[in-house]
Amino acid sequence: MEHAANLGGNLLLKALLRDCRSLRKNLEQVTYPLGHVVALQNRPLKHVYFPTGGSVLSVLLQLKDGGTAESMTVGKEGMIGLPIWLGIERSLSQIVQQGPGELLRIPGRAFCRGIEGSNRATTLLKHFTAYSLRFCNQTAVCNAHHSVEQRMCRWLLITADRLESKKIRLSQALLAHMLGTRRQSVGAVAAKLQGQALISYRRVDIEIIDRRELEKRSCECYNALRQAFGDLVGALL
Predict the structure, then answer these.
(1) How far out from the chain centre does Cα 160 lie?
(2) Residue 171 belongs to what domain range?
(3) Mean pLDDT for each 10-residue chunk of the chain (237 residues)?
(4) Which end of the chain is more exposed for a tag (fewer CB within 10 A), N or C?
(5) What are phi and psi of 40, to 5 degrees?
(6) Phi–psi pair at 98, nearest 5 degrees
(7) pTM for this entry
C-alpha cells in the first residue's frame, strides 16, 4: 500500500504521517462515483477517510422524513472519521462523495493505534475537531439567517476551494440536498447567477465565471470559515 501513501495530497494526513509513520502501512486508496454514500448515519464506521486533490466529501444530517442538509464539507485539508478517534465506532452523519477523486482510508483501530503516544498528532486532531465544530455551528447559523442565494454562493466558493478548480460537477437535486432547500429554489438562484454572468450552469456542470462578485454575494460565513481553519489548523500543518 506504499503507493497510496505516495499519492498523498491530503494536508492533514501529511502532517500526521510526519510523527506517526506507522499509519502509512495501513493506507488504502479507494475511488467512488459522484454521489456515492461513503457512510450511513448511525451505522458502523470502520475507516477514517482522507480526501486527496479533487475529492470532496459532504457531511449530511438526515431527518426521518428524508430531508437533508449539509453541515460540513471536507476536502484535502481534513478527514472524515473523528468519531472513531473519539471512541465512537459509528457515523454520526451521512457522508457523501461530492467531488470526483480518490480517497485514502485507514482502518479505524489501526488509526487510533498509530496516533497513540504522539502529542503533536493528538494536538493536531484536537484542533481539527475544534474547527469541525466551528464549521457545523457556522453552517447552522448560516442556514437559519442567510438567503438561499447567499448560502449557494458560499457553498460554491468553499467547494471550488476544496476542488482547487472553478468547475464543479453537481446536479441541482444534490445541491438542493446540500443546502437543505427545494430544487426549484436552487434552480431559480442558479438561473439568476448565470443571467448575471457570475456562473455558467448546464445540467451537472457548474463553472464559476466571476469569483470576485460571487464572494460579494456570499454571506460572511465563507470568510469566517477560512479564517477559522487558518487559526485552528493551518498553523499546525
Answers:
(1) 11
(2) 142-229
(3) 56 95 94 91 96 90 87 95 96 90 94 96 98 96 95 95 89 86 93 96 91 96 96 93
(4) N
(5) -100, 145
(6) -100, -35
(7) 0.92
